[in-house]
User: Fold this.
Amino acid sequence: MLLSRAKPASGPATVEEKEKKKKKLPKLEDFVGARDYTGAVTLLEFERANKKNDIQTAMWIAYCYFHLGDYKRCLKEYKEITEMKGAPPEAWVYLGCTMFFLGMYKEAEEACGKGPTSKLQNRLMFHLSHKFNDEKKLMSFHKNLQDIVEDQLSLASIHYLRSHYQEAIDIYKRVLLENREFLALNVYVALCYYKLDYYDVSQEVLAVYLQHFPDSTVAINLKACNHFRLYNGKAAEAELKNLSDVCSPSFKFASDLIKHNLVVFRAGESALQVLPPLIDVIPEARLNLVIYYLRQDDIQEAYNHFKDVSPTTPQEYILKGVVNAALGQEQGLNDHIKIAQQYFQLVGGSASECDTIPGRQCMASCFFLLKQFEDVLIYLNSIKSYFYNEDQFNYNFGQAKAATGNYKEAEEIFLMIQSEKMKADYVYLGWLARCYIMNRKPRLAWELYLKQETSSESFSLLQLIANDCYKMGQFYYSAKAFDVLERLDPNPEYWEGKRGACIGLFQQIIAGHEPRETLREILAILRNTGNAQVEYIIRIMKKWAKDNRVSVT
Assistant:
């Protein structure tokens, strides 16, 4: 009964639905409104192929290619448009914008100059002045900026490019306050906080945008970079996997960005295959290639890739300093060390960087190279909470502590280091051995030596143990070290050191500060030397042993 009543009612409705679902041709406005520029350009190319090859169609095609990031194709379109009869004069400014994105700054300036005076032309010339480092022109175009959204965003971007991140944040927040629908500005604010090393704040601001656009390439990439800084490469890579899943084949920049960042997140894996072709595409590619060479201890190659680069950002100045410091220390070139000091001081003393973590690291590095370790500690102490488990930081922090005589804390810091490569380094072993000796733990220093294979570095470590133990009155291990040194190199100085250590230990035994059984080892050590003084010393020691009933056989 219910079914039979339902059938007549559904008949007319089904016909009506079919009428509504008649196919309609897609419109350009629909594609552009949905930001589907691939669909838009497909429709426009179809129309052009069907004899609709007018200026308006060509302008829309160029517009779509620009927003797709295909600037080479866009350049071709705008060049053809400017040659058309009746081409709009603003096409020259659009052509200049396209050239700007391709890095063709001189050509962009020339093309822009052919266009009419406009707000867009002023913004483009403002950015070109920054690229040319022309402060006079920059300020001239700056004066023409108005209190409108586009001009203010242009000003904020220049602040960002000049590392004035707080000024950029202030502008973005003011614009956001008046235009809350401009959600993308949250990404810009988050990027500024990232640059200021406020990674947790960056994440919070970024979350606002990702709630509305979870597939944004730029936002997901920034989130991955925050995870890299806050956690590790694996956490960052997990985030980046989402980006590679949503990235379309036509979006070339995103794929290059993913490849570049994966190299960074994987600690340089495939760097030599991925980074060189991206040097002219992604600004950080060259920096990360230089960092890769530094990590591989190929300092000369790192220097070769960076020597002709004129630094413009704090990161470039810092890396210049690191490369010059490494080359100067490796090859004993004081000129490079002085250059490194200047770069570090320049960054650490600048108004924009002096209160940032990298800025304080730079000042610490500058004073480290000058061997002013008290000053080094002032800066490292102020940022140590950010680097509790960072091996490189602890390596330098421990050296500064030890150099100022704070051996107890230095020992604790050195023992926190996990890197096997660092722990095998002679500088680390030497400082740790010295800390052990100064902290009355000479046996641990001796064990460090016993674990080493015979080499020039193990010989140097033995010299350090012998002399530092002697200085601290730890004559037992000093005598053992001088004994090995004398057997490896029959230098009279080693005999004198061994003789002094053995007599010093004998005095400690008489005073009851060392066990009497140690006397047997002293005699064995002395017998390893063929010096005429040995028998006289042994005779005195044996006489004392006999008088005090100490067995030495």
